């Protein structure tokens, strides 16, 4: 019997297959890390295991019992606890209140409608608060806590439930250095009887913490085994860092340094979600006709950066296009000449392929005909609802509609996420062609090799800051340096 | 709010001594409406659900009590009130069962439609039983409580008891869970609580309590009228709860006091009570928005 | 047989009116995520303004043409106010605000037009029976059915084939992405609101010869409109259409066989839909 077992689990959303036949077996007391690039299906896996989604096919077994399709509260009662990537708390309550609620859940006291002395729970609650180091903040309303402390409350709630299986969703995401250390410390002292399933992008920690590692790629288990084995597995490395013999074949032609006024200037950009600050002062520049890459591991802020530049997120700092400050919202920036190919493609429900293209269309070089020539597949599927397209087709659509804006600068957020190698090649060819034709590109990618085969200049984003800016050519010839940043 | 609430209660208690018959009448209305508005606020405070049809329980409780007492004599008052409460509980449970299977907005529409249904059924559906457009006059007072001042003080005691129970409930483990439910439903579920059941419970209690308020009202007033089932009544209850702040225990009573005083004042000047009510509601929305955060325009 | 045809046609005529009311309600929800509880008020206003215009000009057709335009003017003002409560996280504020607006419209209407029941006669051209072979039926409700069909078709064409319709569907489907693609969602919302209000007012004028104009009409119609969108599914015009047909027919047959309980029948229909298919018959989007 396993603590958690997934048998041939399939889950799709609209046309996208997020999990394609996943088998997972976690033993009692095991520490398992689930890793993989963005779009691999890790979050979906968690949600299925947590009862939030019902799998289309396959079974989920918790402690040997079939739980497929049971709602979250039933699973919690069986001994499953979860933390959320973004702290999910009760804004009007204090820290103590949160932990008490968690502890009450399966205590018989939980359903008493009249006041009852909670002395029985007090000990347990105080112990948990000690553990996470929040005893001194017990009476503080959580709205007044720092983001890191809020994440600690999340953790405290999970621990107070005394779970047999703990699902940790990126426990270190968005935390500052000291906070990360604190959380790591707490995680290392978890009782051994507790089975832990962990998603984490901080691969150093994940590999160091886990007994076994499962690597997901495109909704399937790519590799599973001991951390060291998995880490060195060439397939795994390829999936993360990207290794493609053809990368060196056709280098971007322009290698002379670009001069002239910048097309896009970003200075001191700060942005985040809720209390957490993800971008801590980013500076970058894109020159006209240049192809620039932003590299970094997951959770470092690439999507936040592009969203903030596009105006989809409130942000502080300066963003200028052709020297002029951009208006704050996405509409204004779209009208000013920015176009975004968003992460996850984001097709618009209710519209067909051609309708999305027509919606985006602005006068300029790119016309509907030209797009159909570039992406013949879209012509074939032009009357299909955009949401039923395959992942690759949706990606093409996202690029196509951004192009039809005839923008001054094209922003691309992880365009290869979740795509097969063949499609990745196709996309790369398209982007290379665009670059050759003089389009300005700002590309955020975790697949470093893909990006390096495409861009001239690279910024490396680490924990919300640019830590390096170099010619792509340099990085291509120094794989160690790359590995250091990419994991 | 909570600090000077005891003063308000004390002032209300002194009404029989210091005020006249008119003040006593207003005071009784405050108690009746206060109970119903508290029920509405309770529902929102625990589940985040807004009911636009509480008049169905308030007026329905009044009608149920009136019918029983008129036909079987004042001695059956305890039974009548109990029946009113049970009906309020039952229909509230049915409504929430239907309405909670999807978005909260469906609950809202359902409550509105339901109250309209009750209104029409009472007004036109069974005029023989319910008195149709004219309502039911001649409802006797409960035995022992015929004196207006006595009835009023009894009601005040009842209100006080309800508020104390409310406070005790919120302080209890179950109450804490319900309190959290509105703030983050998903989190509560993931912690292991059956949120549907919790919402049903809150809804049932709310309906039952509103019916009690209606029963109290008719016992004093002596008649019940289809207007007690109308959307105006629902709207008035909502304004009361909102003006009182929705979340504090005192919300219903404070709101009822303010609105009834306002209505008494304004009705001598103008006929356009609904207009003021409407403006009140819009202003309350504006204030609620401001207190929540920046006013954000656009999708 | 003739009798049933009669009831059926009545139901369809009523459905046409309900559709005019519900289409706007559904669209405004789809794009702005706000349940416009004042919508019934605009329907009623349309009827009353139609009455006054008829009194003033003596022509039903002029009243029919002008009332929606007047409603548009009022709608411009109303939209600027409602705008502050757009957005999915504002349920309580939306309810308070639009409900409040409904009260304001209700009392102002009573102030201007009084509490007595008012009526408008059908235009002479339509005030006669038509021989349809199987049944003899008055012309005016047939006209209503025709208008309903024309508007439904027009809306369909608008949504499917025009730029505005595309933007409306985009804003309803994914407002953020639509903005990033240059769709001015605030303007789209405004125009959708105005369209909805104009349709409701049109419905009100058309209803005047058939339904008595009296205080309370706004809420009666609002309830029916809500039931229509619950049954048909919130957010789409086709949902409003199917819902209106079902509710209209249920009402007509209900009134015929269980006169006092017509609304109960409709309510039962809504309850059934909520139990078995909570998103509405055509629902299923966000």
From TrEMBL, chain A:
Query: Which Pfam families does the UniProt record give?
Result: ABC_tran, BCA_ABC_TP_C
What's the protein here called? ATP-binding cassette domain-containing protein
Q: Which PROSITE patterns match?
A: ABC_TRANSPORTER_1, ABC_TRANSPORTER_2
Q: Which UniProt keywords apply?
A: Amino-acid transport, ATP-binding, Nucleotide-binding, Transport
Source organism's superkingdom?
Bacteria
Family to which the UniProt record says this protein belongs? Belongs to the ABC transporter superfamily.
> For this chain's UniProt record, which GO biological process terms are given?
L-amino acid transport
Signal sequence segment: none
UniProt domain ABC transporter: residue ranges: 4-243, 264-486
Q: What is the lineage of its organism?
A: Bacteria, Thermotogati, Deinococcota, Deinococci, Thermales
Could you give a GO molecular-function term held by this entry? ATP hydrolysis activity
Organism the protein comes from: Thermus caliditerrae
UniProtKB/TrEMBL annotation, chain B:
InterPro entries linked to this entry: ABC_transp_permease, LivM-like
Asked if the Swiss-Prot or TrEMBL record annotates the protein with the keyword Transmembrane helix, the reply is yes
| Transcription recorded as keyword | no
Q: Which GO terms describe its molecular function?
A: branched-chain amino acid transmembrane transporter activity
**Major subcellular site:** membrane
Report the subcellular localization. Cell membrane
Q: Look up and give the membrane topology term.
A: Multi-pass membrane protein
The name this protein goes by in its record: Branched-chain amino acid ABC transporter permease
Checking Pfam families in the record gives: BPD_transp_2 (PF02653)
Alphabetically sorted, this entry's keywords are: Cell membrane, Membrane, Transmembrane, Transmembrane helix
Q: Which residues cross the membrane?
A: 47-69, 76-98, 104-122, 149-169, 200-223, 235-260, 272-289
Name a single GO cellular component.
plasma membrane
From TrEMBL, chain C:
What is an example of a GO molecular function annotated in this UniProt entry? transmembrane transporter activity
Q: What is this protein called?
A: Branched-chain amino acid ABC transporter permease
- Gene source species: Thermus caliditerrae
GO BP of this protein: amino acid transport
Q: Which GO terms describe its cellular component?
A: plasma membrane
Pfam families, per the entry: BPD_transp_2
* Entry's localization field: Cell membrane
Alphabetically sorted, this entry's keywords are:
Amino-acid transport, Cell membrane, Membrane, Transmembrane, Transmembrane helix, Transport
Q: Does the keyword Transmembrane helix apply?
A: yes
Membrane-related topology note: Multi-pass membrane protein
Its family remark reads:
Belongs to the binding-protein-dependent transport system permease family. LivHM subfamily.
Q: Where are the transmembrane segments?
A: 6-27, 34-54, 60-82, 94-115, 135-159, 193-213, 219-245, 257-276
